[in-house]
Amino acid sequence: MHAIFLLPLQPKWRKFIAISNKTSRFVAIKMKHYKAIFLDWDDTIGDWTTAEHKALQDIYATYRLNRLYPTFEDYLNAYKPYNLELWGMYGRGEVTKEKLHFERFYRPMVGLPVTADGLRDLAHEIGSEFLRLTNKYFCLLPDAERVVKYLAAKYPLTIISNGFKEVQYYKFEHSGLAPYFAHTLISEEVGINKPQPGIFQVALERNGITADEAVMVGDSYSSDIAGAKAAGIDQIWIRDERLAIKEGETATYIIPKLIDVLKIVNLTQLNK
């Protein structure tokens, strides 16, 4: 069985696109034309999930975390939910970058046979090693280079990211794609995190456009899609089809893969 999404547009463009991950079939009658495209980076363009997984595997082995967690999967089950919770708090401005980065490694290690000071030092050390390892394992998602280069030839592109600046700029430069982006907005530099509408407003101002002239592409509903929606900007949600859509989660467009952005863009070009 394959998924087909019926994607409602804004009232002014009340038609739909049907997207199938098996047939790549699109049906469109009237599409909206955009003047700029905003994109998330991690797990939209860069393969953060793979880099994170490999980095955590190395950390589990190097720091002998089997003393507390018999298997790597046990460690992941302790780390990931709390890490997601902290990122949500960071997006809402409830914790600092430093607090997030420390706590996500400190809390899963409580119980190791070390002193309190030793545990804090270890959490800081692992945090630094994690950033180094995620840079080491950085890679682009399939079709990312093709999509970015194609879009950049037609639109000014803007990155909007909540990632830590020292890591994100490394990835931008080593991806080879930095020259294709007209603007790069890192939340800690702007002083506003996604999903707060303010960072999207900054992106609009940088591009000299209004909200109805932009579209946001991202994989995170809570950060990218909900934030863009709150700012009055259309959204392209790259949704993991293995996960159920929660009640109330809607987007202007829902697609299974980054490459499908090109099909939406080509349709909008026909209606200029």
Give an overview of the whole structure.
- With 272 residues, the protein is an alpha/beta fold.
- The protein has 2 domains: 4-46 and 140-269, HAD superfamily/HAD-like (Rossmann fold), CATH 3.40.50.1000; 48-136, Orthogonal Bundle (DNA polymerase, domain 1), CATH 1.10.150.240.
- The protein has 10 helices and 8 strands.
- The chain has helices spanning 48-62, 72-91, 97-106, 116-136, 144-152, 165-175, 187-190, 197-207, 221-230, 261-269, and strands at 4-8, 16-20, 36-39, 157-161, 183-186, 214-218, 234-238, 253-255.
- The strands form 2 sheets. Strands 5-4-3-6-7-8 form a 6-stranded parallel beta sheet, with helices on both faces. It has a two-stranded antiparallel ribbon with strand order 1-2.
- A hairpin with a 7-residue loop joins β1 (4-8) and β2 (16-20).
- α3 packs across α4 (116-136).
- The two termini are 36 Å apart.
